[in-house]
Queue: 2 jobs
Job 1
Amino acid sequence: MKQKMVAAVDVGTSKVCSLLANVDAEGSIQIVGIGIVPSQGIHKGLVADIDQASESIRQSVRKAEQTSGESITSVYLGISASNISSQCSRATVSVGRNARTVQQGDVQRALKVAREIDLSDERRLLHVIPTQYTLDTQIGVQDPKGMHAFRMDLDTHIVTIPQSSAENITKCAHKAGISIEGLVLQCLASAQAVLHPDETDAGVVLADIGAGTTGISAYKNGNLLLTAVLPVGGHQITRDLSVGLGIPVELAEQLKKEHCNLAEKEDPDAKEEPSVQINFDGVGRIYKKDINDIIRARMDEIMKLIISQLVQQMQSQSYLSYVSEFPAGLVLTGGTANLGGLRFIAQDISGLPTRIGAPTGLSGIADRLHDAAYSSSVGILLCSGKSWRHEQSWAREGRLRDKVVERVKSVGQFAPWAKR
Ligand SMILES: Nc1ncnc2c1ncn2[C@@H]1O[C@H](COP(=O)(O)OP(=O)(O)OP(=O)(O)O)[C@@H](O)[C@H]1O
Ligand SMILES: [Mg+2]
């Protein structure tokens, strides 16, 4: 089967992960290059410091180049910007005058109309995703090509991003010396990596709980219903532990990963057993119950925020009436999905059957990627076939100028005469 080489750079709040892979049309992935570095200069999925963020991207890409022996110039970039917004939109076109049979050109024309929505100057299109077609009065058509109709309505799910955030992230990539093939919202990428078509057909919710953000996407009848990014994630849990237990952030992060067990029911006697003993500025004792109580409180809040997005979207009359809309349940992914026992409290709070989703079936140098933290990174590779280029032409504007400037600067570093 024909393969193509794809480069993905997943810019998260805690890490930048660059992957170079051979991807075929069936979606099988062979990883040939990997570069994971802690991210700097990203706050809640948004660029907070261009120099630091672009340096993290540069280092991550360089590592992927070193492991693969290939050079990377152009990438699909994954972002988790917490200030995106999404809406549904409908575009209507008439079908070719003579044959009245829907052709590829009619579909393209409908998509073009869909992209021409009225946006204020301060926002950019990120994704225009076709959800369903209506031919005359027949709704729910998935592929209209070849069908007879007089008019065609195309429903789309539109995601926009503030212009400043869009420009800052593209600037970071260009400053790191790479061009952008396309931008992908992380929670849409994760969905590609971990959801099964049966789940998206039946109705499913995906939550990618990362370090600074929680990305949500929901599907029904194979269509995307909802995308949202909440500015909360694992960093808040670590900070709660640090403040609540009076310990340094590094230790809080370690305790969170090693000792959390949300599956344990509250046990009034648990406090009698010291679970962890630490020496920090003297002797301190930390109880497992305290760790779990603090984490449970924050996760309870994050879960309720996820649910409120679903309630809002489905315009549910009662708090739990959305449950019947998503029989395939809730799929949790992102690094924070690794919290011990998270599945159990997520299920309790949401009322949805819950599983943890992580990438599977990868070949090549992929051992580290079979972890929920890398669902979006792998998913970006799978999004490379999507035709999102048109709405993102802004991401390619100015790249040549920026690259030339960066190249001249880097020459200048080694050849002082070039600066004069
Ligand atoms: N075993 C674990 N238990 C609990 N939390 C974990 C575990 N492993 C990783 N995490 C948490 O996952 C978070 C990182 O997740 P991820 O890599 O998905 O975030 P990101 O993509 O960098 O950030 P974002 O998507 O929010 O911009 C961190 O807060 C980290 O503490
Ligand atoms: Mg992420």
Job 2
Amino acid sequence: MAALSQSHHLHSNCFSRLPTPKSKPLRLSSTRVRMSLQETGPSLAVVGVTGAVGQEFLSVLSDRDFPFRSIKLLASKRSAGKSVSFQNHSFTVEELTADSFNGIDIALFSAGGSISKEFGPIAVEKGAIVVDNSSAFRMVEGVPLVIPEVNPDAMEGIKVGMGRGALIANPNCSTIICLMAATPLHRHAKVKRMVVSTYQAASGAGAAAMHELELQTREVLEGKPPTCNIFKQQYAFNLFSHNAPVLENGYNEEEMKMVKETRKIWNDMDVKVTATCIRVPVMRAHAESVNLQFEKPLDEDTAREILKNAPGIVVIDDRSSNHFPTPLEVSNKDGVAVGRIRRDLSQDGNHGLDIFVCGDQVRKGAALNAVQIAEMLL
Ligand SMILES: NC(=O)c1ccc[n+]([C@@H]2O[C@H](COP(=O)([O-])OP(=O)(O)OC[C@H]3O[C@@H](n4cnc5c(N)ncnc54)[C@H](OP(=O)(O)O)[C@@H]3O)[C@@H](O)[C@H]2O)c1
């Protein structure tokens, strides 16, 4: 329900995109509202509910009929008091404070790394299981970094009701989308080396970036200078190297996330990964070109069959009509699409494949993956 479409304004419109409440508005102030029909589920908190991922959390919780007995919607002081419709009720957004987590079982965080670093440990201390979308804890030893279709074992034993809090990290969105497709092939033939080139959408940089792309597009078409608040350069009708900070080794942080997180998720410190991450003026959903080198041979027909049977994967690979995955086709969808499945001619025998992958990174790359993790906590 709260899905962000390719053409929507974000910050200004994110509440109006939710359905109008059909029943009398239910107000949430300092206490949590009890949803009458779901009295046995966990108590939830959504941190960063006004953002791109936060809005998608509400949509995914609804779509998957996630059971909960209460829900608390949290954001910054700026949003406190605003009204959000969710499941035909109107909720009031509360300011995130240290007291926000009293009595919370599961806290879904998507308010940026510094907020996670400050409030994640507080929530855990109060007994909540935190599923964090930021990069704050991903590489911390002992913190499971989980894609449910790939490495559910990493969070084994962590359950609501176990008597203590815990932290689980959601991987980087590009990493999730890449590994959804690469892992079934890796299980079959073991990936030795992976070369990834990304084409990343505005939504990956949050609600304000989506708004800026839309605004700039209008401005450029009207012959006006583009407003550059979120990105330092013109985004509409352009593309550029990912805006993450560039490190001493020449890679940017987004690229190094792909390298490090893949090793942790696959529990394989030897896999060689390199990435080039690019922002493209697409509103929503990332695309990635992935080149794989295998230890064992894997021909393209077998690879196609493996992918067709892989959970969460949709194969779109129609050579005769030149129809392959696009960001538009996967927007607001759960599945990650894979196509352009072909033998890499530059590698000997059947030891190399090229694939092209598209996935909605606000959904499978963030909110959906986190809610799937939350489902495994029940
Ligand atoms: N966008 C994606 O595709 C994606 C994918 C994977 C992971 N992530 C991660 O998810 C997080 C959120 O991303 P986003 O794209 O949803 O960003 P966003 O659209 O900019 O939303 C940020 C959210 O954080 C809240 N926030 C900011 N400062 C706060 C504070 N001091 N206290 C409480 N809440 C505060 C904002 O509330 P206000 O509205 O009140 O400012 C808003 O709800 C980031 O860590 C990002 O790296 C994003």
